[in-house]
Write a structure and sequence with these properties.
alpha+beta; 3 helices
């Protein structure tokens, strides 16, 4: 989990998505970006008919589109596979690779504004329901 979650503003989010599309596995790149998940492979897919072939998944970045506001993207979880770890990937490097097209790194990315939940008012107790006040339908 990335705490607090990283937030990509409207312009940055659009540019990151364009960069991931340019470097998509369908275009001979190493990224597969779908709504909700960005996956980084160690090399372009080289299998028959454009299949995965010997390419191995290095890691995944879980994202939410249109959060916290419309056209923004929240990066909230990153997983690095055993193959990715063996190749030298870690959470920060994986995120930095995805964000590098806009000059951001995970360390410099804006973060969600976490506020503690409001405390209950100790002087306002929930109304106690009097069982005699239940209407009878008979």
């Amino acid at each position: 989990m990335i705490r607090p979650a990283a937030i990509l503003g409207i312009a940055v989010a659009a540019e990151v998505l364009r960069a991931l599309e340019r470097n998509d596995i369908a275009n001979g790149g190493v990224w597969s970006a779908t709504p909700g998940m960005w996956q980084r492979f160690d090399r372009p897919w080289n299998g028959p008919g454009g299949g995965r072939g010997t390419a191995q998944l290095a890691g995944s970045i879980a994202v939410i589109y249109d959060e916290p506001r419309r056209n923004e993207i929240t990066i909230y979880r990153v997983n690095v596979t055993p193959a990715g770890l063996a190749a030298g990937w870690d959470v920060e490097r994986l995120c930095d690779d995805a964000l590098s097209s806009v000059g951001l790194t995970l360390a410099t990315c804006p973060r969600a504004d976490l506020r503690p939940p409001p405390r209950p008012d100790p002087f306002h107790l929930p109304a106690q329901r009097d069982p005699r006040s239940v209407p009878s339908w008979g």
